[in-house]
Amino acid sequence: MSKLPNVSTSIFTIMSKMATEYNAINLSQGFPNFPVDERLTDIIAKLAKENVHQYTPMAGYPPLMNQIAKLVQKSYNRTIIPETEILITAGATQGIFTSILALVKTGDEVIILDPSYDSYESPVLLCNAKPIRVALNDDYTPNWQTIEKACSTKTRMIIINNPHNPTGKILAEADFVQLENILKKYPDLLVLSDEVYEYITFEEKHISAHTRKQLLNRCIMISSFGKSFHITGWKIGYVVAPEHLMIEIKKVHQFLVFSVNSICQVAISEYLDIVDVTKLGKFYQEKRDYFKQLLSKSRFELKPCQGTYFQVASYESISDEDDVTFCKRLITEYGVAAIPISTFYANGKDLKLIRFCFAKDNTTLEAAAERLCNI
């Protein structure tokens, strides 16, 4: 009997496979197609001949953990203890999985805000716990009244994603106040804050859970070097959590992967001395604005994007097809792959919206836009 009977091939795999079959421009999957910073690849080339190919300590390469502590201090003015509050993971997804597996027990409930990343629900189910899917408002702001109604003494965790994938929305100060009020009513409730796009924000910087004093003792932070440094294939992320939670997370981590890719940890540790993460937002904002300009004469309506490298677009004036059907036809007839937003909802809610990834070189964006403007 399957432990995940309702899990099938992901929409990302389906769309990417179709994109290959029809030689379509793939704006569906969320990874960049432009080169990695040469300074980082030079570091890797240098390290390849050095003695950095064996296991690191279970929690991570100590110099990298120290660099993360400095990064968090500089970015959010939060002091963390590397040895007890940081864990290097095989990507953010492994950090999410490990944290949920460590902290959620049979019979617990976990609130997931839809539309949501598809890797949130499965670890909850594998814990024999119950995912409670609560839809965001249609403008992708949280409905805190509905969220609070979904809470009970069984609720162990609320998962937030900020900046939000797939919508590019960021949480406001008022959202954190509402969240903190809920936590006051439920003292055993934890927050898992997925902030993998934390350095990819535009006109307004996102408010990190790192900056919320009332959350720090009850929050698990998830971050991703893969997203920040355009190295998604390296699968390097990290978790920050208070010691009493990190003890439990490390127990699971040591039996899941034990330790993470050594040369990549050493390389990122050295790279953090020379890279300026504050420039990432400007870089991607230029991408977002250029893509928006390219599509200005199309029939798509682009929705506001405050962060991440995804652009949500309405095709309501083009077709009344459901979004999955429309995305498949977009590939077969027009040669561009996108992701239907309904697949991020538990109930398949269809608002005639699709998601494009604009983390592509300008040539790719221009070619895709030319096809999209012909629809």
Structure overview:
The protein is an alpha/beta fold and 375 residues long. It folds into 2 domains: 11-30 and 278-372, Aspartate Aminotransferase, domain 1 (Alpha-Beta Complex), CATH 3.90.1150.10; 53-271, Aspartate Aminotransferase, domain 2 (3-Layer(aba) Sandwich). It is built from 14 helices and 13 strands. The protein has helices at 11-21, 38-47, 62-76, 82-85, 92-103, 121-126, 144-150, 173-185, 225-228, 243-256, 262-271, 280-294, 323-334, 362-372; strands at 25-26, 86-89, 109-114, 130-135, 155-161, 190-194, 219-224, 237-240, 301-302, 310-314, 336-337, 339-340, 353-357.
What are the salient characteristics of this protein?
375 residues, alpha/beta, Aspartate Aminotransferase, domain 1, Aspartate Aminotransferase, domain 2, 2 domains, seven-stranded mixed sheet, 38% helix
How would the blueprint of this fold be written?
Blueprint (H helix, E strand, L loop, with lengths): L10 H11 L3 E2 L11 H10 L14 H15 L5 H4 E4 L2 H12 L5 E6 L6 H6 L3 E6 L8 H7 L4 E7 L11 H13 L4 E5 L24 E6 H4 L8 E4 L2 H14 L5 H10 L8 H15 L6 E2 L7 E5 L8 H12 L1 E2 L1 E2 L12 E5 L4 H11 L3
Parallel strand pairs: 1-11, 3-4, 3-5, 5-6, 6-7
Antiparallel strand pairs: 2-8, 7-8, 9-10, 10-13, 12-13
Helix pairs in contact: 2-11, 3-11, 5-10, 12-14
